[in-house]
Design a protein that fits this description.
Chain B: One of its GO terms (cellular component) is ribosome. The complex is a heterotrimer of chains A (286), B (381) and C (360). With 286 residues, chain A is an alpha+beta fold. Chain A contains four helices and nine strands; from the N terminus they run H-E-E-E-E-H-E-H-E-E-E-E-H. In chain A, strand 6 and strand 7 form a beta hairpin. The chains are: A alpha+beta (286), B alpha+beta (381), C alpha+beta (360).
Chain lengths: 286, 381, 360
């Protein structure tokens, strides 16, 4: 039964042919597999005090997967404050945090606008929750601090096709980087913290369609066939406390073990990032 | 974030609430038991102009309405150009296997409207992201919207809170969304294969988005539900009211779903195993063998960190016959924890506590099970 | 069962005596008429034809007459207009400006709105929450249209009731009351715009601690706190709860707390007027709770449950109702499956409680 009331175009076949380069095609086919051990995180570079005009600042770069033309994660964070709140705002016995996370328009494969989209706002609230637990807020009554994180380059492989890899998973890595870099910038600005907080990501991945799933830390989504679940943890190592936990995926609820292990690995990744953070802060002081 | 709408409470109230909720068993301000939810009134199918709708309201007058609208949309051509390879209409493949029915996350659009909050407020963005994240967690949901290789349903979920929230609205919004999706129906497809879709005009023939069992009219798969759970001291408390959340040590939003396909096989296995056992116990086992999936967890920034701390009598300049004026700085000075004085918590939560919260939700016969049972009982009209 | 999900109730239809609808088939009826009021068009037309405005003889009628905004109450010039009414220019007829019931005081006609925010009156005992601290005064939320103000000069300063206010006090204003603090006070004076000035210059007033707060709608509509003889009393709680104070603010804010020995009590023991001064200021601005036993906390929560159940079911909240409700709640808990510790009074149990109270 077809629609006789309208003149329909031919069914199907309206999309022009797209030819792919042979070279590209091969690269996609032999997509980069994870070369690190499941427990190894990528190398990262962290430096504080990069923006002299801000009260505190930090820059974080995470190593690429090794291939040319692939950008790693590049983050820059500036902290302004503590400064007094505007006269119109009500009294606050604590410091007021405001966090802004923004992808640069050119940071991802798909260009982003200048206005923050819901995903970026959401990242901002996660970052706020992670930092709020770390700072000693009642040391600075009636004041506010602005924390601005710009994602200069997202962690995306431009040679993988659009259907491969999912941005929803990339965002976890971005958040973990944001937490680490913001923590460094806060310390640089001299705002009291109970401990240094750092982010870490762990994921349950399946490398080929029929292999059994395994847990890896610091995953690159394009290196895996499918990501089943992923979690990002913000962790205070000396207090053994988690300030922010974000998990998403699809795990059977009967298997609590798997979930607990995932979080443990996330904490491990966070501890690694924290070591870099401490070293970097040590360097700045010296 | 939860913090932007934090309740203004005095340090004495906070100290009292914290003490009452830390008792074993905890004494909640409204007398509920730790795992008890506020009674709610629910109904579905209230808006005939939508594909599916639901309404839930609490006794305090907080009320949420969800309307689901579906539109047919052309699927963007893939990079690989599947259709081109497929040839013409003659070669239309009707038996597309499930793997190929891949959905995309932008097939669902969700908006949350909370009166008194700006559209771009962080709370609204956070709530929207939380609910849609659970929905899209495994791609199983968007697969339901697949019509054929060229077209799909685009689902608009509009969540409306009728009055300004008196408590953190996440559970209310999530439960309403759950019911609305259960009641959602899409017109029956009459065209075949990759033709332009053509639908049956008869609304009575429309199929449910979540197909139902012919026998008892219940669905096997169910949309996700997000539960709010918090910990105070050693107690785990569900569905906290605003003032309870204000003294939380940690608060989590946990989303759970129920899977259809695996549930069917699981119950099948169970049934075969139980053949020789008493039939009633076997039946009970089948109903309890619910295949729960853990879809998403988020920490909710507890507003307790932003509450004003109390001043112990020892350092209070306005306390006692203090005609001799002490230093005004005494207020900001660090003080030892004194019983009966509220102190805003610092730091995060122990990983073990968080794991206990999640476990409490998920365990067999736990809260998630009971909530889904209760939602089962709602008449879906 | 942790979750109770109720089916929505069908809209209640209160059929008037004059209504000639078929009541027997009310389930279908409720859907078709949608609860709207039916107008008698024939009568309206007749009234128009006779050249009258549609007006019923209000004054001669019964006690509970409900008027809506714009409705003419009377055009008899002997009446004076009161709250909730206005007089149209060039006429003598008094017209209602709110929806509510008519009250007559001698020759004064006023309309009490069905639902309204609290309107302060001098002498009211109110419970309020500090929302803003200014240089020489606090701004207090008392549930009225305007924030009430509490000047620094209207509180008892520590170190003697009649001490002179100094600049140091102004600088330390936040040590007495800070944002979020709850206090009980009395309305001392009213401004033209409806704003109230409070004072706490009495031993009974001051900062609240050792208990729990609950806000219910005050004034009007049948439910909520009503002005009565006693707004503050102490009750002896059941099951070893000890004495508990209940403060029903006229503004609908309620405070339930553990009873602490009042300064008056101390006076009898120590019998020294100087000690009185000191003990007053000692507890007046403290935000540290005393040790409170779990039994007391449970009974406080039970009383809170009674108050919310009363309000949810549209009953008035005063000493008599709270006391009766409390005793009833204790007895309900005795027969409850959970035992005497069961203090939950929400949902159906609240309705049950209200039904018992109204039946008497």
């Amino acid at each position: 039964m077809t629609d006789r009331r309208r003149i329909n175009g031919p069914v199907g076949a309206t999309i022009p042919l797209v030819f792919e380069d042979v070279e590209d095609y091969e690269q996609v086919a032999t997509k980069a597999a994870r070369s690190r051990a499941p427990n190894a995180v990528r190398k990262m570079y962290l430096k504080t005090g990069v923006t002299p005009s801000a009260s505190g600042s930090a820059y974080l770069e995470i190593e690429t997967s090794g291939k040319g033309g692939v950008s790693g994660l590049k983050l820059s964070c500036t902290v302004y404050g503590p400064r007094s709140l505007p006269r119109s705002s009500p009294f606050s016995p604590h410091i007021i945090l405001s966090t802004h996370v923004k992808y640069a328009p050119f940071a991802t494969k798909q260009r982003r606008g200048y206005l923050r989209d819901p995903a970026e706002r959401d990242l901002g609230s996660h970052l706020e929750a992670a930092l709020r637990g770390a700072i000693i807020a009642d040391r600075w009554p009636k004041s506010g601090v602005d924390i601005i994180v710009s994602i200069i380059e997202g962690d995306q492989d431009r040679e993988t096709s659009k259907t491969q890899g999912d941005e929803a998973w990339d965002i976890m890595n971005a958040l973990s980087g944001c937490i680490t870099v913001a923590s460094a910038a806060l310390a640089d600005a001299g705002i009291d913290c109970v401990d240094t907080v750092a982010g870490g990501v762990a994921a349950l991945v399946r490398d080929t369609a029929d292999s059994s799933p395994s847990i890896v830390v610091d995953p690159i989504p394009s290196e895996h066939e499918k990501i089943l679940a992923s979690c990002c943890v913000a962790y205070l190592p000396t207090r053994n406390e988690v300030t922010n936990l974000w998990y998403k995926g699809d795990l059977p609820a009967s298997d609590m073990e798997l979930y607990t292990k995932l979080v443990e690995k996330g904490i491990q990744a966070s501890t690694n990032a924290n070591r870099v953070l401490l070293e970097c802060l040590g360097e700045t002081v010296n | 974030m939860a913090s932007t709408q934090h309740a203004l409470l005095s340090p004495a109230e906070l100290a009292y609430l914290h003490a009452a909720l830390s008792l074993t068993p905890p004494i909640r301000p409204d007398g509920r038991s730790p795992a008890q939810f506020r009674p709610l009134v629910a109904e579905t199918g209230i808006l005939p102009g939508t594909n599916g709708s639901a309404r839930i309201c609490f006794a305090d007058g907080t009320e949420a309405i969800v309307g689901v609208k579906a539109e047919v949309e052309r699927t963007r051509g893939g990079y690989e150009g599947e259709i081109v390879e497929g040839g013409g209409a003659e070669e239309v493949v009707t038996d597309v296997n499930d793997e190929e029915k891949k959905g995309e996350s932008d097939w669902v659009e969700m908006t949350v409207e909370i009166p008194g909050l700006r559209d771009d407020d962080a709370t609204t963005a956070f709530l929207g992201a939380m609910i849609s994240e659970a929905l899209l967690a495994d791609g199983g949901f968007s697969r339901r919207l697949w019509i054929n290789r060229r077209f799909h349903w685009k689902l608009y979920l509009d969540i409306l809170l009728i009055s300004p929230p008196l408590s953190y609205p996440l559970p209310l919004l999530s439960l309403t969304t759950h019911l609305a999706l259960l009641a959602t129906r899409l017109p029956r497809l009459k065209s075949e294969g990759d033709e332009d879709p053509f639908f049956d005009d008869d609304w009575a023939a429309a199929r449910y988005l979540y197909p139902r069992n012919k026998k008892d009219g219940k669905t096997t798969a169910r949309p996700p539900v997000t539960l709010l759970v918090m910990a105070v001291g050693n107690n785990i408390i569900f569905d906290p009211a605003k003032e309870e959340l204000a003294v939380a040590d940690v608060a989590l939003a946990v989303s759970i779903g129920e899977d259809a396909t695996t549930a069917a096989t699981a119950t099948g296995d169970d049934a075969s195993l139980m053949m020789d056992v008493d039939s009633t116990t076997a039946a009970a086992a089948i109903t309890s063998a619910r295949n729960l999936r853990l879809l998403s967890i988020r920490t909710i920034d507890p507003p307790s960190r932003l509450t004003p701390s109390g001043v112990p009598n020892a350092t209070n300049t306005a306390y006692g016959a203090a005609t001799t004026q002490k230093q005004p700085e005494a207020r900001t000075a660090e003080a030892e924890a004194v019983e009966g004085v509220w102190r805003a918590p610092r730091g995060g939560a122990k990983p073990l506590v968080m794991a206990a919260l999640v476990h409490k939700v998920l365990e067999k016969g736990g809260i998630a099970d009971e909530v889904l049972d209760a939602l089962h009982a709602v008449d879906l009209g | 069962m942790p979750v109770t999900i109720l089916a929505p109730k069908a809209m209640r239809q209160d059929y008037g005596q004059a209504d000639k609808q078929n009541i027997s088939d009310d389930s279908d009826d409720a859907d078709s008429s949608n609860g709207g009021a039916e107008l008698d068009y024939a009568e309206l037309a007749k009234a128009d034809a006779e050249g009258h405005t549609h007006k019923r003889p209000r004054i001669a009628g019964g006690d509970f007459e409900i008027v809506t905004p714009g409705e003419v109450i009377t055009d008899d010039p002997q009446w004076m207009r009161g709250h909730g009414t206005y007089v149209a220019a060039g006429t003598t007829s008094i017209i209602s400006s709110v929806a509510g019931t008519i009250t007559r005081t001698n020759k004064l006609l006023s309309v009490r709105p069905l639902r309204a925010r609290y309107t302060p009156e001098v002498g009211d005992l109110v419970v309020g929450r500090i929302v803003e601290v200014q240089a020489k005064r606090w701004r207090v939320d008392v549930g009225a249209t305007q924030l009430a103000s509490l000047p620094l000069s209207a509180i008892n300063l520590p170190g003697g009731i009649l001490r002179k206010r100094t600049e140091t006090d102004e600088l330390q204003i936040r040590t007495f009351f800070a944002e979020g603090d709850l206090l009980v006070a009395e309305v001392q004076q009213l401004f033209q715009d409806g704003g109230a000035v409070l004072h706490t210059r009495s031993l009974k007033y001051g900062k609240l601690r050792n208990g729990m707060f609950v806000a219910v709608s005050g004034m009007g509509g049948g439910g909520g706190v009503v002005r009565s003889r006693r707004q503050v009393w102490t009750l002896e709680a059941a099951s070893g709860g000890g004495p508990i104070d209940v403060v029903l603010g006229v503004n609908g804010y309620v405070w339930i707390s553990k009873h602490v020995e009042t300064p008056e009590g101390l006076v009898e023991k120590t019998s020294g007027i100087t000690n009185l001064d000191e003990s007053v200021s000692a507890t007046m601005y403290s935000s540290q709770n005393d040790r409170i036993g779990p039994e007391t906390m449970r009974e406080i929560a039970r009383i809170r449950g009674v108050v919310t159940a009363l309000v949810d079911n549209g009953l008035r909240v005063d000493e008599d109702m709270v006391m009766r409700g409390y005793h009833e709640a204790v007895e309900m808990a005795m027969v409850s499956s959970v035992g005497a510790d069961d203090i939950y009074l929400g949902g159906e149990r609240g309705e049950q409680l209200a039904a018992v109270l109204t039946a008497v």
